[in-house]
Here is the input.
Amino acid sequence: MIDQRKLPNKVQWYVCKRGGEVIAAIRKMVIRGAPAIGIAAAMGLALGARAIRTSSYNVFRERFMKLAEKMSQARPTAVNLVWAVERMKGLVESMGDCSVDEIKEALRRESEKILEEDIECNKKMGQYGQKLVPRRATILTHCNAGALATGGYGTALGVIRAAHGRGKKIEVIADETRPWLQGLRLTSFELMEDRIPVTVIADNAAGSLMRQGRIDLVITGADRIAANGDVANKIGTYQVAVLAKANGIPFYVAAPTSTIDLTLRSGDEIPVEHRPPEEIYRIGNRVFGPPALRAINPVFDITPSKYVTAIITEKGVVGPPFRRNLAKLF
Here is the structure.
């Protein structure tokens, strides 16, 4: 996988040879973005399965399930991770009459299938979503929901790519997205590679640009969507959604159905990951702020569905009432 911590200054491949190394890569933010984490988890389980030395199905199953449990805990908020792990576990459970070698090969194929499905899913999302984009539009996006966060095309950026591909005159405003600066480092990098005009702003400049009428719509990705349409996404998304509502600007969320968690009634039930406080006051090797500074570092926030105009999925665009209409997708 590309080490996203090094971008855009350096494109460096990070090689995992064991399932545990994939878990570490997910935790350390080598790879990030809900769909990409799910794909990595599936491939990590296929990789880990290969290292299990036994011909006994029961022994193999026991060891695999232990690895799967560790994988599912790598990061708590992105539901795609759990979705992919459960899919791989289900495959093992269904192959009790097969040889261990056959199961290992089936896991490898399944992980590659998850990757292929994600790319196809993102392209469908892009085609549905681009219909919401005017012929000329300035789009604000937060964090990075592009090829780097998925199997290779993007959710929010997939919609933008599809609109650009249709010849629409697109300008993108990318929030820098503190503290990991995914907008500054990753979104701008991807869009510049695609020659889509992009301008980066500080996170706290979004409201001012909206009030000036310089933003036509907002599109973000999501890490988990509850049954009622509440959205967990990168910290700072909630305030962007509130500002968009206050300024009469559509706020769209682009996410595959694997990101929708119908087991959770509302966003209040979504686990929000907190990461080390030094990520707030450390950028690279430089430390800012006085010694012994305290910091709170929630990685995600919850945007209530009342601020969401529509959710773009690979099965179509879903509007309110979300509880009823999201359930119809399944």
Residues 124-328 form a domain with the Rossmann fold fold (CATH 3.40.50.10470). The mean pLDDT is 96. The chain has eleven helices and 13 strands.
